[in-house]
Amino acid sequence: MPRIARRTFLAGLGGAALTACTGSGRSAQPPTTDGFEASGTPSPTPVPPVTVNAATGPVLVPGAPLRVVVLDTDVLDSSLTLGITPLGAALPAADRGFPAYWPASRTAEIRRVGPAGAPDLEAVRLLRPDLILSNQARDGDRYDQLREIAPTVLSQTTGAPWKANFQLHAQALSRVAAGAAFVAAYQKHAGQVAEALAAAKLSGQRVSLVRFTEGGGIRLFGRQSFPGTVLSDAQVGRPDPQNVDQSDFEVPLDQIGRADGDLLLYATYGDPAKAGTEAALASPGWQALGAVKAHRAFPVDDQLWFQGIGYTGANFMLDELQRFLGA
CB of 275 within 8 A of CB of 214? Predict the structure, then answer.
């Protein structure tokens, strides 16, 4: 698949979202209190409330919510992908800003409401949301407090079940048609990348995924993780230690050999010195890796590869994977 500029790709995503949501590509406008739009024509019929089956049970949410707050990175990707810019968002504590794979024009107006896993509930309340999105792993212990502010839809967890979670988010946001369009586009993209790799005789390449995490050591990622599923969708192989049905696992520096592969992609969450990235990359064990010796070890954006957890992030990852493999 020819690689395209991110700005062009995102413009296409936005157009697809609007077309799927409105049927004409025209941006939907919220109804005014008197039932008429500013032009004097009757406003669209209000969308009725929707009951979604969240991890906590059935939740009644307003139809076509516009005042949305998201409390993790997966729901941030889902919301923006589906054409809704959240009023507020919680990001992982070590993140300095919003993911760079989204242009600043899409995120500039989003207010940060504290770190993911410990949001500022008063800041959330002041935004007067009509819907809150998150997951139980992050916010299960404050669910009752959140639903006092607004209807709150939680998935069970994040990461590997990102595709099923996206369906839940699309339903809660009244963007089911748009969601289906993005799913189909991603599946087509993944198939095209797989075909390109096969044509270049690169399907047998084993791709290693390594994340250096501040406070969490060196982590290798298996098949049951967000980036692991994206590699699987592209029909890319994994090194034996990572070809396992689990999300991720920690290894000590003296076992860094388990990170080797034909291609090695690594990222850092937090400060590289505190995360151990600098020490690891300078270590004899890292320098002895076959991927490093072959100049096939590349840093990637942590907010994309390990935090994106959504269809827009996954599409960019497919494009980068194809570039790294040289197909």
Answer: yes
Query: Could you tell me the pLDDT band of residue 18, with boundaries at 50, 70 and 90?
Result: very low
Please give the pLDDT value at position 153. Answer: 98
CA–CA gap between residue 129 and residue 125 (Å, rounded): 7
Higher pLDDT, 327 or 162: 162
Six-digit token string for 276: 């151990």
Is residue 208 within 8 A of residue 264, CB to CB? The reply is yes
> What are the two backbone dihedrals, phi and then psi, of residue 153, each rounded to the nearest 5 degrees?
-110, 120
Dihedral pair phi/psi, residue 149, rounded to 5° = -85, -45
CA distance 134 to 21: 23
Instruction: Find the mean pLDDT for residues 132-150.
Output: 98
User: What φ, ψ does residue 169 adopt, rounded to 5°?
Assistant: -65, -40
For residue 177, which of 10, 25, 4, 8 has the smallest C-alpha distance?
Answer: 25
**β-bridge pairing 217-221 and 207-213:** antiparallel
Cβ of 93: how many Cβ atoms within 10 Å? Answer: 14
Q: Whole-prediction pTM value?
A: 0.88
- Which alpha helices (H) appear in 159-257, and where do they start and end? 162-172, 176-199, 226-233
In this predicted structure, the answer to whether residue 157 has a pLDDT above a threshold of 60 is: yes
To the nearest 10°, the Cα dihedral for 188, 248, 285, 325? 0
Residues 240-255 have a mean pLDDT of: 96
Q: What is the distance between the alpha carbons of residues 254 and 218, in angstroms, rounded to a whole number?
A: 11
